[in-house]
């Protein structure tokens, strides 16, 4: 705890120093300007007092600079947009540098077991534009073209547009350029789903994608996630479903964030890297979970609305990141966001997605619910084929509409086994 406190204190000192340098330079410049226009000083007293208040507010929390609109910040501080950009960049880089030792990159050894894990599953010319999870039923449910609008009236033009999208998106699963939000209570399979998706992203694509997995929570949560990834891959290899010829699992990166400030800094850095035209790798971005980053932060009192502002900025960044393919056609990004559940007297199930109306960012919103244990048949291919019956954890998945309602929409069930997500 003492080490963490020292790290936090050091970061706070660095940010305050950056802000102090910026404030002193710009206030000196503004003072010289006022001296040149001394006859207007009396008319500017009110503006100057307001400026002092703005500087004082930001001095309490320099990290809030990242959550404010750049144009608004430029107006508040009476500086140029370029100065605002440089300041935000310094703040973001400082936060990332201070947290770098909490970031983990797991590169898997090319030994006899793991070196045979990563060949892409398909060698055909027709490549799926989507990322699969391991369950065909769940892939169809999360497809952006599935029949979630079947109970509502649609115009002829809407139907024609959906038919065109259906032709383009040949397979089901998470489409690049989309955000999928999965909400559920504890033990509903949110993290297991995210890990299965990470594995399938690597082994089923020909475009050498990479996975950036951002997790929240106390302690060293990245290590158990890494072990679970290895377990899934080992089982898939044992079943003969994957091998390694081109792709290696050093393309999966785990990162840990403590709060919304850390998440915002990482998303800004990621957006900056994606806009560089330096490679053509696709990306799956996983945030597990948003409620872990913002659960207390958004609703805290006395922060002057900074928590809500940072949350809103993160949502905008996620939308821009998911649509990076519209700007840089050589790259495609898919986003999976998990979210917890909280009690609600208004919901038929007694629960509702955490963060409520604030977290409306997904193109597809799925609610996961624990179901029951299910017996399934498992096939192993390790020199010879064998069949055994195993018990997996059953999960119910429901597609929600834009109002987080499930009436009349699709519902499926899938299982979570040693090899990850599977049909039951």
Automatic annotation (TrEMBL):
One of its GO terms (cellular component) is Rad51B-Rad51C-Rad51D-XRCC2 complex. Gene3D superfamilies: P-loop containing nucleotide triphosphate hydrolases. Residues 142-170 are annotated as: Disordered. Pfam families: Rad51. One of its GO terms (molecular function) is single-stranded DNA binding. One of its GO terms (biological process) is reciprocal meiotic recombination. Its main location: nucleus. PANTHER family: DNA REPAIR PROTEIN RAD51 HOMOLOG 4. This is Rad51-like C-terminal domain-containing protein.
């Amino acid at each position: 705890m003492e080490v963490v406190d020292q790290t936090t204190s050091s970061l706070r000192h660095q940010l305050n120093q950056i802000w102090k340098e910026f404030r002193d330079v710009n206030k000196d410049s503004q003072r010289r300007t006022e001296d040149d226009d001394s006859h207007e000083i009396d008319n500017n007293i009110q503006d100057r007092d307001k400026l002092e208040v703005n500087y004082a507010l930001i001095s309490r929390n320099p990290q809030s600079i990242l959550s404010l609109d750049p144009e608004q910040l430029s107006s508040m501080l009476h500086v140029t947009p370029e100065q605002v950009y440089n300041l935000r960049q310094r703040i973001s880089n400082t936060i990332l540098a201070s947290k770098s030792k909490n970031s983990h990159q797991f590169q898997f050894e090319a030994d006899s077991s793991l070196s045979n894990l990563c060949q892409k599953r398909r060698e055909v010319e027709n490549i799926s534009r989507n990322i699969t999870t391991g369950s065909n039923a769940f892939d169809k449910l999360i497809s952006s073209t599935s029949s979630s609008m079947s109970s509502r009236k649609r115009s002829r033009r809407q139907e024609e547009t959906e038919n065109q999208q259906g032709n383009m998106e040949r397979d089901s699963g998470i489409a690049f350029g989309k955000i999928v939000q999965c909400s559920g209570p504890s033990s509903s399979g949110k993290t297991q789903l995210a890990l299965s998706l990470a594995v399938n992203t690597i082994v089923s694509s020909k475009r050498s994608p990479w996975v950036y997995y951002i997790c929240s929570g106390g302690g060293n949560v990245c290590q158990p996630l890494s072990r679970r990834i290895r377990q899934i891959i080992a089982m898939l290899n044992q079943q003969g479903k994957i091998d390694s010829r081109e792709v290696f699992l050093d393309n999966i990166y785990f990162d840990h964030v403590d709060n919304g400030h850390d998440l915002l800094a990482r998303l800004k850095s990621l957006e900056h890297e994606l806009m560089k035209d330096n490679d053509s790798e696709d990306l799956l971005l996983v945030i597990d979970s948003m409620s872990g980053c913002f659960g207390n932060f958004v609703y805290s009192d006395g922060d002057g609305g900074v928590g809500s502002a940072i949350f809103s900025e993160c949502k905008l960044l996620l939308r821009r990141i998911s649509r990076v393919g519209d700007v840089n056609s050589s790259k495609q990004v898919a986003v999976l966001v998990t979210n917890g559940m909280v009690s609600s007297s208004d919901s038929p199930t007694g629960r509702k997605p955490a963060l409520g109306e604030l977290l409306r960012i997904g193109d597809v919103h799925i609610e996961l619910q624990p179901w029951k244990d299910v017996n399934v048949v498992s096939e192993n291919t390790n020199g010879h084929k064998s069949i055994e019956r195993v018990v997996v954890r059953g999960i119910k998945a429901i597609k929600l509409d834009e109002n987080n309602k499930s009436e009349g929409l699709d519902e499926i069930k899938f299982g979570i086994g040693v090899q990850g997500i599977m049909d039951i």
